[in-house]
Amino acid sequence: MKIVIAPDSFKESLTAMQVANAIEKGFKTIFPHAEYCKVPMADGGEGTVQAMIDATNGKKVTLKVSGPLGEPVEAFYGILADNKTAVIEMAAASGLHHVPRSKRNPLTTSSYGTGELIKDALNRGMKHIIIGLGGSATNDAGAGMLTALGIKLLNAQGQPIPSGGAGLSELVQVDMSQCAPKLAQCKIDVACDVDNPLCGPLGASAIFGPQKGATTEMINELDNALNHFAQVSSSLFPSKQFHTVKGSGAAGGMGFGLLTYLNATLTPGITLVTQTVGLAKHCQDADLVITGEGRIDGQTIFGKTPMGVLQVAQQYNVPTIGIAGSLGDNANAILTKGMQAIFAIIPGVAPLEVVLEEAETNLINTSQNIAATLNMSL
Question: Which biological process, per GO, is one annotated for this protein (predicted)?
């Protein structure tokens, strides 16, 4: 019997690989001779780098870059086993967690550090870069990132515009002459799971600005600045009218910057991950697939890891089980999509810190009980 174990991480508790190891340990008590194939997963958000490193035997690169406030922060990205593919989480360099709540101001925060991660990957010879959006502290449409890659954003006096989202309102000219030449030989895929356009009531500033510290006045200023950036960009690239494209507003407009200036492709995160780690080839001769995440609820069917894994398993008619830290509202929605069963690992009411601390033990015990139940029907 071949069992594929392809879970996401349990946030704040276990990495995807640790989850997979725990499930395997529980199942092995009942099925010691089964073939186990562990494929750590993610959906493009937090934990994607670690999951893909673990799934492909890659390595992590750690370096100091410029954080959202311009101060040095320690960031990271992954290089997969092919030594040609890099995986970057934007939040690693430009994430909200780098900015104290009292200092959050998307008028001035910059994505420069994300550009430094991309540049480092290019300098190491990467030919394919996967970038996960989400958790950003910025609203600069990737302007900081572009600057780090040698693209000059200039005002009417030919001087660099101020960093941050508000500075885009001063943009008059874009100088591409010093753009990192290795970009031309690199394919960039972007894990994007939102459909917001760059501007307007559903745009980057209006929807994501408040969590980054934007007031109503700031939102209007930022939205106008992003709209101005789109107009200038459209004059430079008449064939690239990406400001209305779904996902262009992701991560404070980073989606727009990547699409327009780096010729990136926006793809659902779970799709990128399943393709990159080769999940399909592991599932094609499997007898059972086990997936999971920290919480399975009604939102899981909208591009979360268990749904993505289920869709791959269904291509080969392999039954799939979901295991979660907890089950939320409308968790059974994924059952209507074809998953055979879902299980929560928490055995009883307990404080959150205890639940997180005991996650591994509870996961092993739950997995053992699931395996014992399956064994009854064999």
Answer: organic acid phosphorylation
Contact 153, 124 (CB under 8 A): no
The pTM of the full predicted model, rounded to 2 decimals, is 0.91
List pLDDT tens digits, range 26-72: 999 999 999 999 999 999 888 999 999 999 999 999 999 999 999 99
Q: Is the dihedral of CA 190, 192, 197, 200 positive or negative?
A: negative
Domain 2-41+278-376: CATH superfamily, name plus number: Glycerate kinase; domain 1 (3.40.50.10350)
Residue ranges, CATH 3.90.1510.10, the chain = 48-269
Tokens of 123: 């300098």
> Which residue pairs, CB below 8 angstroms and at least 24 apart, start in 318-322?
318/4, 318/283, 318/286, 318/287, 318/288, 318/289, 319/288, 319/289, 320/288, 320/289, 320/290, 320/291, 321/288, 321/289, 321/290, 321/291, 321/370, 322/290, 322/291, 322/292, 322/296
Mode of pairing for the β-strands spanning 288-296 and 320-327: parallel
Report how far residue 137's alpha carbon sits from residue 132's, in angstroms, rounded to the nearest whole number. Answer: 14
Where do the CATH 3.40.50.10350 domains begin and end in the chain?
Answer: 2-41+278-376
Q: What is residue 66's three-state secondary structure?
A: strand
Type of residue at 284:
Q
> Which amino acid does the sequence have at 214?
A
pLDDT in tens, 177-195: 999 999 999 999 999 988 9
CB atoms within 10 A of CB 43: 28
CATH of span 48-269: 3.90.1510.10
The DSSP element (H or E) to which 3 belongs, if any, is strand 2-5
| Distance in angstroms between the alpha carbons of the first and the last residue of the chain | 11
Let me know: does 295 contact 327? Beta carbons within 8 Å. yes
Q: Which two three-digit tokens encode residue 312?
A: 């791959």
Contact assessment for residue 283 and residue 312, using Cβ atoms and an 8 Å cutoff: yes
Residue pair 102/162 in contact (Cβ under 8 Å)? The answer is: no
